[in-house]
Amino acid sequence: MTNRPAAVLLVALLMAGCGGPATPGPSTSPGGGQPSGTPGAVALASASPSARPSPTPAPSAVPSPTPTRAPSPTPTAAPLALTATTLAVHTPTHLSRMVVFIDGGTLVVCGGWNGSGTTGAIVRLDPVAGTIAQAGSLATAVHDAAGAQLGDLWLVVGGGAAAPGAAAQVVDRSGVAKVVGQLPATRADHVAAAINGTAVIAGGAGTGAADPRVLVTTDGVTFTIIAALPVAVRYPAAAVLGGKLYLLGGETASGETASIQAIDPVAGTAVEVARLPAPLSHAMAFVLNGRLYVAGGRRAGVALKDIVAVDPATGAVTAAGQLPATASDGVAAVIGQKAYLIGGERDQVLDTVVALGAGG
Questions:
Q1: pLDDT bracket for residue 87 (50, 70, 90)
Q2: For the chain, how many structural domains are there in total?
Q3: Which domain holds residue 288?
Q4: How many Å from the N-terminal Cα to the C-terminal Cα in the chain?
Q5: Helix-then-strand count for the chain, H and E
Q6: Could you count the other beta carbons within 10 Å of the beta carbon of residue 103?
Q7: 3-class DSSP state for residue 234?
Q8: Structure pTM?
């Protein structure tokens, strides 16, 4: 039989030597966030070296909490669907196939087709104030041209009137334009966009078949060929996303195409990356809230009113709304959280301005 006083003395000495059964404190998340631990676990303060444990039996140790990584905040995805609202303001004349630049909160619209001829007019549109005014004129009147905004350098390239042209025009903020250079060949029905200070020009045609050459310029004076489109097209929709210019659909020598092509000006490549579910041409594309959208356009000659979000990597299309009416061949520009579609064509040339956004 064990001597009880001696046993109690031995337990007390052992407990004094190890400091007692301390409960682990909370663990800190790897990212330095708030401590995380097992729900309901109680953290006990560490005993000081001089603290003497109670001679009463110690409670069972609380299990060590499993270290967990604080969950990353889930980003709130922007609404996919867009609401389209026709604004009260109208273009001075019916317009399609023009070029648009952004100047602060205003849109500068250059040239275009007014239903009876080519115009060289430059107008400034404030979609919030609902005002529009004459702001100058192009050096050469053109429609079906392409434009790229390189900071203060607003470049209008190609386009034409009775026939495709090759002029490269620079427009300043006061509405004064001058011809500064010439494309390597005449071209109309093409697209252009600025990527990292370089204007990328693709698609379109001169007097013959669609021109596959992809051009770049930084000044409108010197043009360099960097690639060839795998599918030569006229009238594609186009938008910049992730440093690449995407061409969606368009017209080929054999008819409309569903091709999605990506141009990387840094790598100097142009590749077909996916295909739309159906052929499309003369549509308007834009990027809003990080998503690529395509609005309107034509299929088999019929104008459309669909707004779709497109995944350019797969060609997957998701319905995202409807335009107030069918439209093709307008221009699209984004200011803040709104995209604006100006003019275009249905059975006739339009003079409308449509705002698209998650809130209308």
A1: very high
A2: 1
A3: 83-357
A4: 89
A5: 1, 28
A6: 15
A7: strand
A8: 0.79
